[in-house]
Each structure stands twice: as C-alpha cells, then as structure tokens.
C-alpha cells in the first residue's frame, strides 16, 4: 500500500536531538524555579507580614512583593515558551530568548552579580537554544511513472 505524500503532518518541523536535550534541561530548570517562586511568594509574604512587620507597617513590604510577582510572571512565560518549543510552534523559541534575557536583566538589577553561577547557567541556556535550528521533515514526491519510463 502506497503512503500518500504531501500530508500536513508530514511537513511539521522535527526537533533535533540537541534542541530536545537543551529544552528538556531548560524546562526542568525553569519549572523548578517557577515552583520555588510560587512557594516563596505564598509563604514569605505570610512570614514577613506575621513576624517582621507590625500591623501599621505592612506597606513597606510591597516592593519585595512586586519583585517576587514580576519574577513569577517572567518564569511562567519562560515555562510556557518552552512548552511551545516542544509543541513545535514558531514563536516559542523567540519568546524563550526574549524573556530569558529580560529575566536575567531583572535578576541582575534586583540582586546584583552575587549569584554569578545562576547567571552563567541562564546565559548558557540562551546561547545553546537560540542558534539551534529546528529541521523540517519534508518528503519529496517520488514519481514512479517517470522512473519506470
């Protein structure tokens, strides 16, 4: 039985092994970072309000709260973009690179250069994932009638 060529699912892009490895590591890293930020946001806000601030001084912690919320949103977008990479969407890699650079800049602005290994890892992920291309799987039509003639 002859398989029909030119179907849409035959033309979908195929992830290379390097892209699968790099994106798998990145989604694990940013997924764990997202879980950490959710717990930090929930528990540290409760802890800070309960123990360190008096009843009238709760306004002073809003800067830290907004910093945590912004970092949580950026990590959520990064995890979403990596899921889009695995779903073979075109905009997934562009979202990942853009928001990863934005997250690195935001972390550098808020914490400084102290956790340099974290920055090195995140920059390395961007440098590995950005240039890796997604190869397309294209089947060419084989014309048996021309070969037979």
Write the layout of secondary structure elements.
Blueprint: E1 13-14, H1 17-52, H2 62-86, H3 91-111, H4 116-129, E2 135-136, H5 144-148
Antiparallel strand pairs: 1-2
Helix pairs in contact: 1-2, 2-3, 3-4
Low-pLDDT stretches are 5-11, 138-145
Q: What is the beta-strand fraction?
A: under 5%
H/I helix tally: 5
Question: What about the largest sheet?
Answer: 2 strands, antiparallel
Number of strands: 2
Structural class: mainly alpha
Radius of gyration equals 23 Å
Strand arrangement across the biggest beta sheet:
1-2
Write up what this structure looks like:
Strands 1-2 form a two-stranded antiparallel ribbon. Helix 1 runs antiparallel to helix 2 (62-86), helix 2 packs antiparallel against helix 3 (91-111) and helix 3 (91-111) runs antiparallel to helix 4 (116-129). It is 68% helix and 3% strand. It has 149 residues and is mainly alpha-helical. The chain contains 5 helices and 2 strands; from the N terminus they run E-H-H-H-H-E-H.
Task: Please give a quick description of this structure.
By secondary structure, this protein is an all-alpha fold. 68% of the residues lie in helices and 3% in strands.
Search tags:
mainly alpha, 5 helices, 2 strands, globular, 149 residues, two-stranded antiparallel ribbon
């Amino acid at each position: 039985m002859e398989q029909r060529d030119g179907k849409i699912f035959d033309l979908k892009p195929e992830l290379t092994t390097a892209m699968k490895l790099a994106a798998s590591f990145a989604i694990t890293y940013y997924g764990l970072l997202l879980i950490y930020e959710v717990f930090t946001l929930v528990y540290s806000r409760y802890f800070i309000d309960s123990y360190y601030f008096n009843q009238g001084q709760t306004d002073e912690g809003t800067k830290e709260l907004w910093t945590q919320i912004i970092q949580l949103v950026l990590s959520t977008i990064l995890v979403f973009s990596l899921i889009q990479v695995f779903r073979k969407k075109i905009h997934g890699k562009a979202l990942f690179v853009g928001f990863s650079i934005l997250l690195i800049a935001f972390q550098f602005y808020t914490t400084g250069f102290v956790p340099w290994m974290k920055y090195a890892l995140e920059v390395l992920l961007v440098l590995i994932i950005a240039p890796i291309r997604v190869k397309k799987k294209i089947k060419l039509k084989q014309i048996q009638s021309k070969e037979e003639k």
